[in-house]
Each structure stands twice: as C-alpha cells, then as structure tokens.
Amino acid sequence: MRDVAFEVNGKACRVAVEPRTTLADCLRHDLGLTGTHVACAHGVCGACTVLVDGEAVRSCLTLAVQMEGAAVTTIEGLSSEDGLSPLQAAFRKHGAVQCGFCTPGIITTMHALLTTEPHADEARVREVLSGNICRCTGYMAMVAAVLEARAAYQGAPA
Ligand code: FES
Ligand code: FES
Fold this sequence. Notes:
This protein has five helices and five strands. It is α+β, with helices and mostly antiparallel strands.
C-alpha cells in the first residue's frame, strides 16, 4: 500500500491505496464519492471524468498514486449548499438528463470546456461532447443546455 495526499473538492485528504488502484476506484470506494461513474473502464466513454488541476481527466485510466499534491474536483464539488451550478441548472431546465448515468462525466467535461473556452460555439461544444458516450442518446438537449450555460462562464476567471 502507498499513502497519497491530495485535495478533493477543496478538502485535503490522505488515503492508503494499492499502486494499481485507479483514481475512479479511490474516489468511489475509499472516499465515498460515488457521483463519479464507471462504465467502460477503458477510457472510451467518459463517464468517469473528473477535474485534475482544472483539466478533464478519465479517472478510470488514472492511478490514484499519481494524484500526489493534485487538486481533484468531482461532480460533488461542482455544486454547493446553495444549489445547482448554472451548468447543472441548465441541464435540468432543458431536460438534458435521462437515466443520468453519463451526466456526471458530461457535466465535468463541459465545465472544463466552458472554464477555458466560455465562448465555445455549437460546433466546438459538439466536438468536445463527442468524447462522452450517452447510451440514452439525448445529445440535442445537452448541447442546448451547454450553450445556455456559457453566459455564466463569460467574464469569470479561467
Ligand atoms: S469509465 Fe472511464 S472512460 Fe469509460
Ligand atoms: S442519460 Fe443515460 S447514459 Fe446518458
């Protein structure tokens, strides 16, 4: 076992993990953050996406021991006691959630996109969204929600 210390959703944590433990398993099983979902476990579907130092990362392909000193944000860290984030609220408004399994990975991916590219156009949103597989296939509503949420990111520090 190895000790690894990093930040998750703004809080410092230290966990003992096997060197082979993925970040996804560490978040879900060691830290109880089950909002991060695992589907393919092979880096294909994007369901497990979290933010590592602000970048969208597939946590099924990332080892927990690689997180030493990093700042990780999961879907649980994107809303607050005050309620849903503007992106989450837009998803709800547009009915962009069906079964919801892919949703955490899509919200984290789109949050990373809009943080760095708050003026992303529809083609860019679709391009980045294509890396996340939704088996319920409701992409039209997701695109509409992301485009509407852009306003909340414009003018915000990247
Ligand atoms: S579970 Fe990680 S990309 Fe599919
Ligand atoms: S909403 Fe069901 S997999 Fe995307």
